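U., I forgot to send this yesterday:
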Amino acid sequence: MGKDALGLLGGMTLGCAGWFGGFGAFLLVAALGGLGYAVGGFLERGGDLRDLRDLRDLRDLRGPQVPARGRR
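Result:
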């Protein structure tokens, strides 16, 4: 499926969600569509689902914890 047809399908889906479900449903469909687009692009570039699962553990990404000054 081409990108133009995929964009048309996404726009029609958002339009239906906005028409039948209101603005809250429109935002929910847009957010989930964006998340699906990001995950699909990641997997298409050769990523693995285990890599996404390992991103949950953010303690390794934040680095060492430094206490704030003046607080004990």
